[in-house]
Amino acid sequence: MKKILISTSIILIIVVGLLIGYFLLSSPAAQATNTANRFMAALLENNPEKVSELLKDTDIETNNSNIYQRNYRLLHTSKDDATNGEFYLLYEFTDNTYPTKIRVSARGDTITAVKSGSRIGKIPSEDKAEEINVNTETSTCLSRDDLVYIDSRSIYARYIRGATMIFLPETSNYQTNTGGGLLLDRMADFYKKAAEKDFIFELKGYMQTSGLAPEDRERRDNLFQQRATKLQKDLVERDVPLDRITIAEVYNYYMPEQATEVDNPSYVDINVVNRCIDA
Fold first, then answer.
1. For the CA atoms of 137, 142, 145, 149, what is the dihedral angle to 10 degrees?
2. What span, in angstroms and rounded, lies between the C-alpha atoms of 149 and 180?
3. Does 58 share its domain with 87?
């Protein structure tokens, strides 16, 4: 009798565990979260094909280069019962480049909307108008026609992602199989087309600092300086004036215990800083 009770208890525990696992993995919230996370991972990996696959040929536009190859963290998940169980997942990018947030709307394995900005809310009804401070007294501001060349439409953004250079691990050599040289050519051509406009290039790296010993942080910082100097030199060789290139401090970020955070110390961004927009 005792053995029967033990066996029954074990079976009940297994069944309950399976039911809990099924609920956690198959609930509408879990499905929507998984879909949104896969979409964000595709953006981080700079994988337009995967992005298009997840969007299922909808008319959602995601050709803004400023949302690709950026670290992010999930801030909030909301459900809107008025839209047949649609879930809104609000993410925050971990650097200071515009846009600072992105919201993915999902229902099951379908993405229904994507919106990025700096004042977007948990749900669409909480969105606020973007605050824009533009110096209109000068005619040297970057225009839409200028920014089209680098696949951007963010004329009211101060920081615009121009290119992301990927370096070989622990070296100051950028990858050539990902078009590193072509990206620098593109940045140089952009400068030549818009040289009279009020902008500079900013070289910015990333460093995940949580859990790093001081000597490791110093080593990573030195490596970034070597990489930035290499990019600066190569841009100058392409006729970009030295005074139009600045090396920013490494962006230090902390990696929380979330699967959406990725350590990318091998990336260095080339940002276009639109000086017509107030900091």
1. 180
2. 17
3. yes
The verdict on 148 and 229 lying in the same domain is yes
49-68 residue pLDDT tens:
888 888 875 666 666 667 88
The Cα–Cα gap between 183 and 201 comes to: 13
- Expressed in percent and rounded to 5, the helix, strand and coil fractions of the chain are 40, 25, 40
User: Model confidence over 27-48: pLDDT tens digits?
Assistant: 888 888 999 999 998 888 878 7
Helices 28-44 & 2-26 angle (0-180, nearest 10): 50
DSSP symbol at 173: P
Number of residues assigned to the chain: 279
3-state secondary structure of 63: coil
Q: What is the CA radius of gyration of the chain?
A: 23
For residue 241, the enclosing domain spans 144-274
Rounded to whole angstroms, how far apart are CA atoms 32 and 107?
5
Residues 98 and 180 in one domain: no
